[in-house]
Fold this sequence. Notes:
The complex is a heterodimer of chains A (296) and B (352). Chain A has 296 residues and is mainly alpha-helical. Chain A has helices spanning 2-9, 15-51, 55-58, 74-82, 85-116, 122-134, 137-150, 157-163, 165-182, 185-193, 198-227, 230-235, 244-251, 260-280, 282-289; strands spanning 253-254, 257-258. The relative contact order of chain A is 0.12. Helix content of chain B is 24%, strand content 35%.
Amino acid sequence: MAxxxxxxMGKPGTGRIVGDKLVARAIRIYIPLLLLLVVTLxxxxxxxxxxxxxxxxxxxxxVSPLWVREPTLDWYKHLxxxxxxxxxxxxxxxxxxxxxxxxxxxxxxxxxxxARLRYRGADSIGWGIFVTYLVPPTLLFLxxxxxxxxxxxxxxxxxxILTYPTFLIPFCTWMLMGFFKSIPRELEEAALVDGATxxxxxxxxxxxxxxxxxxxxxxxxxxxxxNEFLYxxxxxxxxxxxxIPVGVTQELIHGDEFFWGELMAxxxxxxxxxxxLYSFFVDHFVAxxxxxxxxx
Amino acid sequence: xxxxxxxxxxxxxxxxxxxxDDLSLSIKDTEFMVLVGPSGCGKSTALRMLAGLEDIxxxxxxxxxxxxxxxxxxDRDVAMVFQSYALYPHMTVFDNMAFGLKxxxxxxxxxxxxxxxxxxxLRLDQLLARKPRQLSGGQRQRVALGRAIVRQPRAFLLDEPxxxxxxMLRVQTRIELQKMHQRLGTTFxxxxxxxVEAMTMGDRIAVMKDGILQQVxxxxxxxxxPVNMYVAGFIGSPRMNFLPVTISDHQAKASGLELNLxxxxxxxxxxxxxxxxxxxxxxxxDDAVIDLKVEVLEVLxxxxxxxxxVGSDDLIARVDPQLKVSVNDRVRLGVNMRRLxxxxxxxxxxxx
Lengths: 296, 352
């Protein structure tokens, strides 16, 4: 916008200066952006290109690896017929969706209460939750293994659905707490005086206004559980109950033998749902990132 | 319609921050009561306790004869207008105004007719489908009032409702609020830091400072007979002149002034209070006279203010704008002895 305005305001004979400004702008903004884009998208491009190559082309070092000459869907067919990929995809979707819903339900309530209600120990509970989030899964999986064993949930998707909230809830709670804090307290007070109960004020006023934040939290939670690797690796052994990240790395790699075509096809398919979700909610996502920074 | 009674109400936010200290105040049915004081004096907290938004640390609040200390806000049947208006941003004007009725389970037709009626009174008919962010400040303010009146509550609580409006709109809304009060015949409790709003709107004014109620009285009485220096200085603009005096018997002596007091006050050190508007342009022989050295002049058209010194004390006088004065002049003004106040220098309480 600003550059357009500047262009319009330019007097006759100042074309040269405007041109210089465009060059400066390109150097400052567009070239760095382009570089960033290339770096970010290259792995995806490589994934896509590789997944469409035939076996012979894949290992032919005499041609450029950056392009496909004879695209084929063989690897995809193979992936869906010869491996358990459809199961993994379904498992991942179920686990990510259910654990996100559970986490969101808990986090909305926890975040709201920490932001709004004055009760003894609210601050320490808030910090406690934050500290919990800082405990790395690489430490937490040890005790959790015993819990899962005692619950007889090995090789069961519930093992993941119940353990993912251990990192999703702290994360979402903190994010939503910030969101609820940014909503003026008076709005709910007005509702209380108007005749609402605390719960009604929350559902009719606070939650609708926090919706962008809730959506952003949901997106984060879904992505985190979709990509989760460690717990999935430890708690699930049976091929049919695996999730995409574990299934792909365990069953499409045999020792030093990499099934590159299937690997790339599976990785690409595995990243598509998240990418689609993000593109739908990108505005909310950005709103979520800046929550609390800007009031209103 | 209801009376409201505060009985020894105290609010502590922590052990050493007392927002409201032993407040006793009774507000009559249909009265327009204004709580006034500087920010942080506890007036808003007093209002919020009545609404049920703050717990009461000690004492009790009654609406009519019912103690409401433990009653949740929704059962108190009061309506509140917030300084920020607190309109629900995701709802239309109609839904904002209907919210209270919806929560109380009113029928759709009743909701419709009551909101329409309130909208008509407040000239919001055309705006019912809009969202708050599409409204001007004045319109938002009217929606906030509308949300309160559709409820037909027992009492209206208003927390600085005019402070976000520009000066002209503020005066206009002030008058509308007074009309509204007359038409509705409901108890109004109005919190403000603006002494002009307090003087113009209140049936009675309660002046607060540091959580302590200083004086409750009709505007006239607050102005004429302030109980202490704080109230005297807070009400009236420009503020009352205070001149420290030493007193022996009937004689009060300031740095540039000597007065014969009407009666012996019985204190040795006092503070004389004279409002800027209580100087006499024509000096007669039995009036006390001051000699004001003018430092700054303000001509406002209807009034002229002289800022200057009497002896070593600062003084402001309001005089006839026709009076020809220039800076550094010495002006002789008479003191209207009947409007003179005397405060005890130690306790700051009014002697007369």
